[in-house]
Design goal:
Length: 406
């Protein structure tokens, strides 16, 4: 039974979410969900090991209780401002006129042979397409005839220390790490339709500490980007603007928050708790909109600037998909449409069975996506990391993963 259980662990800045999926044939059923407030992370990066471990344990315990099974391993999501992605290509000559698996491995090694700083390591090497003797758009070149093989890949790198700390926290919470996966890629597994990936779409995951961008086209990943701004910045703005405690600011944001000033009437009043024993005050809800609207516009403008910098502005033919907890804020979709001038929709987990009603919320997109990602790669052997050579183990696993998807 254990071989059929796949667990996604979304270690976020504001919450830690554990999603348990059961694979039966081609179906993936969600059988357990655990969620706990995250303590110990800032902007997607671990800043307190002990607090993070305790939060992970509580989320996993809740998921175990609901699923009725013991959780021993998980696919872990990674984000943070330290994550960056770039495109690369490699070329090799073919011996014997027929392309074999060994040739594909060689061309991928050639594509990833780029100068990377010592403090960074490769998290993903994602094939985009192969080119055989100037024939473009080939997804699987094995068995084809040719004398030259070229590969276009997207390489995602992250800070070694940040990934090490994530893995260390997961291990100390009693779990094996099957893989670390970029959170926006995981979300894309469950939120985007195949037609959107084919035609071209941008997925923006609005999390608590980070805003993750992933651009898909031709069913492949074209660009990734992580912005170290998120829902926590909105909460902080409210706390400063209304002079309210952080906890109360978060509650006000969830209950009354809106990004559209024009949708709020002057008669709408909210009550703001005082700090340090001061009396609570009554304020117009319009003030809340005046705080949130410019911050949301700023986040989308920075993402738009990155899209133009990467030359991807004409790739997103089917539009934008927003997901993540902050996408639930009133008016976010309208702000995104006005900034990007593209059709925008809210993305929720799809392609699953079981507890669909429970996870039918953008806050679970990454957790469910990690389960789907794991299901695609479940043949991989689970491992437990205890030594210092963590990334070499993960790189070996990545090489095996390539063999499976080609």
């Amino acid at each position: 039974m254990q071989e059929e259980i796949i667990v996604g662990l979304d270690i976020g800045t504001t919450k830690i979410c554990c999603v348990v999926g059961e694979v039966s044939g081609n179906e993936i059923n969600i059988i357990g969900v655990g969620k706990h407030p995250s303590v110990g992370l800032r902007k997607g990066v671990v800043v307190n090991i002990e607090s993070t471990v305790q939060s992970i344990k509580k989320a996993v315990e809740d998921a175990e209780l609901m699923a009725g099974c013991e959780i021993t391993s998980a696919y872990v999501g990674i984000a943070g401002g330290h994550v960056s992605g770039f495109n690369s290509r490699g070329i090799v000559a073919i011996k014997g006129n027929e392309i074999r698996r060994h040739d594909v491995e060689r061309v991928q090694d050639a594509a990833r042979a780029v100068a990377i700083p010592m403090d960074r390591e490769v998290i993903h090497v994602l094939p985009q397409e192969y080119i055989v003797d100037d024939q473009f758009g080939i997804m699987d070149p094995i068995g084809m005839s040719g004398v030259r093989l070229e590969a276009k890949v997207h390489i995602v790198t992250g800070a070694v220390t940040s990934a090490n700390n994530l893995i260390k926290c997961t291990n100390q919470a009693g779990l094996d790490v099957c893989d670390i996966v970029l959170e926006s890629l995981a979300s894309g597994e469950t939120v985007l339709a195949d037609e959107e990936k084919e035609l071209g779409a941008a997925l923006i995951d609005l999390g608590g500490g980070t805003t993750d961008l992933a651009i898909f086209a031709g069913k492949n990943i074209k660009h990734t980007f992580v912005l170290a701004l998120g829902g926590h910045n909105l909460t902080n703005d409210i706390a400063i603007g209304l002079r309210a405690p952080i906890g109360d600011a978060e509650a006000i944001k969830k209950q009354f928050g809106t990004c559209l000033f024009e949708n709020v009437g002057p008669e709408e009043i909210i009550e703001v708790p005082g700090m340090g024993g001061r009396k609570s005050r009554k304020l117009s809800r319009q003030i809340l909109a005046e705080i949130l609207e410019p911050r949301m516009e700023e986040i989308f403008t920075l993402v738009r600037r990155e899209i133009y910098r990467a030359g991807m502005e004409n790739v997103m033919a089917s539009g934008l998909v927003l997901t993540g907890g902050s996408s639930l804020l009133d008016g976010v979709t309208e702000i995104a449409e006005s900034v990007f001038n593209l059709p925008t929709r809210l993305g929720k987990p799809t392609g699953i069975g079981g507890l669909v009603d429970v996870v039918n919320n953008p806050i679970y997109s990454t957790g469910v996506g990690l389960v789907l990602w794991g299901a695609k790669n479940q043949a991989q052997k689970k491992f437990r990391i205890r030594d210092s050579n963590i990334f070499n183990r993960i790189l070996d696993r990545m090489k095996k993963w390539f063999k499976d998807i080609i």
